[in-house]
Amino acid sequence: MRTGNPEKNHGLLDDVSKAIIEQLQVDGRRPYAAIGKAVGLSEAAVRQRVQRLTDAGIMQVVAVTDPLELGFARQAMIGIKVQGALEPIAEALAAMDEIEYVVITAGSFDLLAEVLCESDEHLLQVLSERIRRIDGVQATETFVYLKLVKQTYSWGVR
Questions:
Q1: Do 92 and 136 contact (CB within 8 A), yes or no?
Q2: pTM here?
Q3: Residues 78/140, Cβ–Cβ less than 8 Å
């Protein structure tokens, strides 16, 4: 999910929309009728707001899975140092199926990319044959996940 345009989307984020988002953060399968009751809207109005928020890139409703249970034995974060423009390299990374998360950062690395692979061999192939071959990639450092301690999506809204 790409982040939206905060200035353009400001009007979509009134208190009612924020309350809808909070309801969905607790349970993404909560029926629109139940959300409507909680926020004081009809089911149809909730459905419209959710669609507008989704279309604007403010939120997405997805199933969060355990990668290990789905056959992905290797998950890692890759720190990438770049020479030149960051955005084209970030876009090239984002286009790869194995990469689920890409951010442009300030600090030791220019980009961080989270990769999900079926095996160590698959991770090595993605790293060596694809990521490191992108024009402008100078160096990478791979942080292999050993254990997921916390992952949450219910941080609320401001």
A1: no
A2: 0.69
A3: yes
Look at residues 90, 91, 138 and name the one whose alpha carbon lies nearest to residue 111: 90
Per the DSSP assignment, residues forming a β-bridge with 144 are: 76
Could you give phi then psi for residue 137, rounded to 5 degrees? -75, 120
Is residue 136 classed as helix, strand or coil in its secondary structure? coil
Q: Are 75 and 114 in contact (CB under 8 A)?
A: yes
What DSSP string runs through 8-40? HHGGG--HHHHHHHHHHHH-TT--HHHHHHHHT
Cα–chain-centroid distance for residue 123? 20
Q: Each residue of 32-91: pLDDT tens digit?
A: 999 999 999 999 999 999 999 999 999 988 777 666 666 667 899 999 999 999 999 999
What are the strands, taking DSSP E only, across the chain? 74-82, 99-104, 111-117, 137-144
Pick from 82, 24, 33, 76: nearest CA to 54: 24
- Other beta carbons within 10 angstroms of residue 102's beta carbon come to 21
Count of CB atoms within 10 A of residue 98's CB? Answer: 20
